[in-house]
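Work Package 3 (structural annotation) set out to generate three-dimensional models for the target panel prioritized at the project kickoff. During this period the team completed the workflow that converts sequence records into discrete structure tokens, so that structures can be stored uniformly alongside our sequence database. As a representative example, we reproduce one entry of 150 residues exactly as it appears in the project archive.
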Amino acid sequence: MKALLQRVTEASVSVGNEVVGRIGQGLVVFVGIAQEDTERDANYLADKIVNLRIFADEASKFNLSALETGGEILIVSQFTLLADARKGRRPSFAEAASPEQAEVLFTLFVDRVRDTGLKVETGRFQQHMSVEIHNDGPVTIALDSKEKLA
């Protein structure tokens, strides 16, 4: 499971002309789910993301997490994070989970983040979305559940 985090001052996601999710200061999390991903991957990334210290303290050091700051989280499913562009000019998405499998794990991931008590908004699974992001810093971090330490 892959996640791309962007620290934001505000963000929103729309489907057509309808805003379906909006947050203030916090994180936008794009999530890509691979065929071999499991509940363990979803749990690992949810815990990692809410506890990642990427918010500044009084000394402007990255010492605070979303949990500590009460950051809001906007989660958007994005299968294109699984793109393999090593060959040719058209990316392959062969490693991406089927929509049915991905939706189950995406929902589980969202539920785990919500379980922390933080405000969580989402896009709409398998829909064409427009995401407006006011990146703060900018701070952008890529995470992959397969790269965790044992």
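The CA atoms of residues 49 and 66 lie 8 Å apart.
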